[in-house]
Amino acid sequence: MSETEMSDTNALCPRCAHGAIEHIFDSPVPGVWEVLQCGRCLYMWRTSEPARRTRRDAYPAEFMMTPEDIGTAPEVPAVPPLRTSAARTAAG
Ligand SMILES: [Zn+2]
Question: Where is this region: Disordered (predicted)?
Answer without folding.
Answer: 71-92
